[in-house]
Specification:
Radius of gyration: 20 Å
Number of helices: 12
Number of strands: 18
Shape: globular
Structural class: alpha+beta
Order of helices and strands: EEHHEEEEHEEEHHHHHEEHEEHEEEEEHH
Strand content: 15-25%
Strand order of the largest sheet: 4-8-7-18-17-16-15-14
Distance between the termini: 32 Å
Helix content: 25-40%
């Protein structure tokens, strides 16, 4: 999720009459947005799945590569150097390491930002498995008549939206309306195609916002309710979660804006670690999992991103969901490993230099 507005000398360069007023004053997404915006509640069920625990944290030595010299220090030191909210290392269903910043604990909510896109992708897969949507090749116009008449819209498929190969051009106002606006569907008026669908990958929030609208119209169930019954409660999430909505239509911001505990995010990672099966029960079909977690550079897509998941290194066989400020849900099937990392915004240069993927693989190498 990329939403940025710039202030200089008291002048907002992005200012124009069509930008939501909140985007001017709030400027950057932050941890307070979960409670600042209205939301739909995703209630936990009667069952609470618990990971096993160790008497003490397993010691890991890592470098974050923010220096040109590889200084290896404890994982504790690296996390404390950055704006890390929480970090979990879970192997074989046992928490090997856990860290919470002072003032936070296992019951604290963390903003998902674009990690939510992976949840939306899963809901699309379930809707296809259940017959509400015929396939990923189904035309978006079947559910989005608002796009009729736009050049290239008749070529747009659900798969294009999943892979960000829609061809829709970026528009600052469209992004601001999606995140800050009181009526997110106003963003549909800003849609224009820069290229034909299926030619190139361009990561845009509007793609997954449209998937949310397609889900609602195909199933006649709000995405938050669908997430509750199809994923949240079957996976034994221990805490309620929230999904931000716009104020006018209570439309879920399906491209971002889930709020949940680190441990409950880890359970979603465990679902994908086990290829869509939870305690012997299929939540996602094997076909959908295989279709999602693969490399496919055809039809404008890239080798490293598929269906809202980032593919890692072939040698590791790892993959991950990633959000703004470098939130990570990292999955390493060969090591039966899940790593959850949530951050607040930090100084751009420092944030850009750290590569958390490298840190996670250093951890994996020590297990």
């Amino acid at each position: 999720m990329h939403i940025r507005f710039f202030l200089s000398g008291g002048i907002l360069f992005a200012l124009n009459s069509s930008l939501p007023i909140r985007s001017i004053f709030l400027a950057q997404p932050d941890k307070n947005d979960l409670r600042r915006f209205e939301y739909a509640t995703i209630p936990a069920g009667a069952t609470c799945f618990q990971f096993g625990t160790q008497p003490q944290n397993r010691p890991f030595q890592v470098t974050d590569w923010t220096s040109d010299i590889p200084f290896f220090v404890s994982l504790d030191q690296v996390l404390q150097t950055h704006q890390v909210r929480s970090c979990l290392v879970i192997q074989n269903d046992t928490i090997q390491y856990q860290y919470y910043r002072t003032g936070l604990d296992a019951a604290s909510w963390h903003s998902s930002y674009s990690i939510a896109k992976a949840f939306t992708s899963a809901l699309v897969g379930i809707a296809i498995d259940e017959g509400f949507i015929p396939s990923v090749q189904t035309k978006a116009l079947d559910y989005l008549p608002e796009l009729a008449g736009l050049a290239q819209a008749d070529q747009l498929t659900i798969e294009h939206l999943l892979n960000h190969t829609s061809g829709i051009g970026y528009d600052l106002t469209m992004d601001a309306v999606l995140y800050y606006g009181r009526d997110a569907r106003r963003a549909l008026r800003k849609i224009r195609f820069a290229t034909a669908p299926g030619q190139q990958q361009h990561y845009l929030n509007i793609n997954v916002a449209l998937l949310g609208l397609i889900l609602k119209r195909a199933t006649d169930i709000p995405p938050a309710q669908d997430l509750t019954t199809k994923i949240w409660q079957p996976l034994g999430m221990c805490h309620d979660a929230v999904w931000s909505v716009d104020e006018k239509r209570r439309f879920e911001k399906t491209f971002c804006c889930l709020g949940a505990t680190a441990l409950d995010y880890a359970k979603f990672g465990r679902l994908y670690l086990h290829q869509g099966v939870w305690e012997g029960q299929p939540i996602l079909s094997q076909a959908w999992f295989q279709q999602s977690i693969r490399r496919d550079s055809s039809r404008g897509s890239s080798f490293h991103y598929n269906y809202c998941w980032y593919m890692g290194l072939k040698a590791y066989g790892d993959f991950m969901a990633i959000g703004l400020y470098k939130q990570h849900l990292y999955i390493h099937p060969k090591k039966n490993l899940i790593i959850v990392l949530f951050n607040d915004r930090e100084k751009p240069l420092k944030a850009e230099r750290v590569n958390w993927w490298f840190v996670f693989r250093q951890i994996a190498d020590q297990l």
